Fold this protein.
Amino acid sequence: MTAETSQTLDRGLRVLKLLADTDHGLTVTELSNKLGVNRTVVYRLLATLEQHALVRRDLGGRARVGLGVLRLSRQVHPLVREAALPALRSLAEDIGATAHLTLVDGAEALAVAVVEPTWTDYHVAYRTGFRHSLDRGAAGRAILAARQDAHSEPRCTLTHGELEAGASGAAAALVGVTGIEGSVGVVMLADAVPERVGPRVVDAAREVADALR
């Protein structure tokens, strides 16, 4: 800790991070041990975070992340979209296909940014806000593949006709971005994705990941 930082705020943020990393919550004693502070300090931290709905405690006394975190997370999408747009524009123009950034939203894939090419006679209409299950379409499948090997380099996943008849997709997951699970991809009207598209999509995924770090 330096003179310019707040020890209490630092501890509060560490509590939120610890709770975010567990599905079953943590007790006061467990948090006390992990933070290296006494239980009284933990009680005060939890009480403050509860007032802002960032933490909730169940009947058994285990602390979990509260619904207030969701309100904060809604502001993340515009920031992520802004960071990703330059790479998406370049990808769409290079490939001549609709490029998109897709993030995990619960059990679904949610398109949060879409860029269509400016020079093509026709292309797939793919709108921001479009949702689909993670196990259908290149965007979701790329994310699921990355979950199996979280430390690997991004790889391109290809699909055809899973979300729209006659359309093919290519996507690569964002790798190494803390707190964000998503993919970058393109969708095109074609029976198969041209060979050059895969490496270009992977490069775009790396660009977006770098912009978000």
Q: What stands out?
A: The chain has a mean pLDDT of 92. The helical segments are 7-20, 28-35, 39-51, 68-73, 76-95, 138-148, 197-212. The radius of gyration is 21 Å. The beta strands are 55-57, 63-65, 98-105, 108-115, 131-133, 156-160, 167-173, 182-189.
